[in-house]
Amino acid sequence: MPPFRYTVTGCWIYYCVGLMVFLVAPGDAGCEDVGFCCTGRDPSCISKGWRADRSYGTCYCDQACTFTLDCCHDYELACPAVSCVVSEWSAWSGCAEPCRATVRMRSRQVLQEPQNGGEPCLHVEEHAGCAEYKDHPRQCSKSLVPALITTGGYGNARKKRDIPVKNDDVAGYCVQFQLTSMTPGCQRSVGPHTRWMHYLREGHKVCVECQPPALAAGQRHCSGDGEEEESGRQSLQWQAVGNPRCRGVWRRFGRLDSCSCPTVHSFLFI
C-alpha cells in the first residue's frame, strides 16, 4: 500500500507541475513581446496571452482595446498613454483687412501628437474681432465714416421742393455697389418711411445716386461714395437714414453716369 500511495502522490505532483507550466508559461506573451502599439482599432495588432480581464487567448495592443476590454495584460506598461503637447500661443496677427471690423488670429504648434489614448490636442487657432485704423489714418479716415442713404424716391421729392443747388457746375452721378453684409434690423423696419429697407439683401447690386444738393461746400462728390479711396473695389460702410439699426458693408464697383438699377435697388446719398 505505501508504494501505491507514493505512486499516486507522485503522479499528482507531476500533474500539478505540468498544469502550472501550461498556465503560467503563456502568460508572458503580450504587447511587449510582439512589439505592437497601434492607433485606433487594428485587427492585425494582436498577440496571444492573458487579457486584462484575466481570460486567456487572443488579445489586442491597439488603442481601441481599452474600450472593447480585450487588451493584453501588459498593454498599459508596453503602450503608455502620451497626451498632446502644444506650444505657447503666438502673438496676435494684424487685422485681416484695414479700415473695417474684421478678425485677427493667433496660433500654436503641436509639439507632441497624442498616442495610445492620451489626451487629444485642443484647438490650435483662435480668432477675435478687431478694427485696425491707427496705422492707416489717410486710408481709413473716410472709409470709416458710413455713407448715409435713403430711398431713391426722396430725390424726386427733393426736386419738387426746388431745393437750391449751390454747385451748379457739378453734375450728378451714380455709384454701383454690392451689398456684402447687413444687420438684421433692416428687415425689422416698421412704418411706411422705412419700407424701402426691406429690399436690401446681401449679394444684391444697388445703385446710389449723388445729387448736387448732397454735396458739401467745396466738394465734388458725395460723402461715403468711395471716390477718394485708392484700393479700388474695397469694402465701405453704409447707414440707412431713419433706422439706426439698419447698416452694413458694401463693395464699390465703380461710378456710372446714370443709375440703371431697378427702382427697389436704387438709392440716394444724403
Automatic annotation (TrEMBL):
N-terminal signal peptide: 1-31
Alphabetical list of Gene3D superfamilies matching this protein: Thrombospondin type-1 (TSP1) repeat
Key words, A-Z: Disulfide bond, Glycoprotein, Signal
PROSITE patterns in the cross-refs: SMB_1 (PS00524), SMB_2 (PS50958), TSP1 (PS50092)
Domain of life where this protein originates: Eukaryota
Entry-linked InterPro entries: SBSPO (IPR039942), SBSPON_C (IPR056801), Somatomedin_B-like_dom_sf (IPR036024), Somatomedin_B_dom (IPR001212), TSP1_rpt (IPR000884), TSP1_rpt_sf (IPR036383), TSP1_spondin_dom (IPR044004)
Domain SMB: 33-83
UniProt-recorded name of the protein: SMB domain-containing protein
Protein's organism: Coregonus suidteri
Record lineage: Eukaryota, Metazoa, Chordata, Craniata, Vertebrata
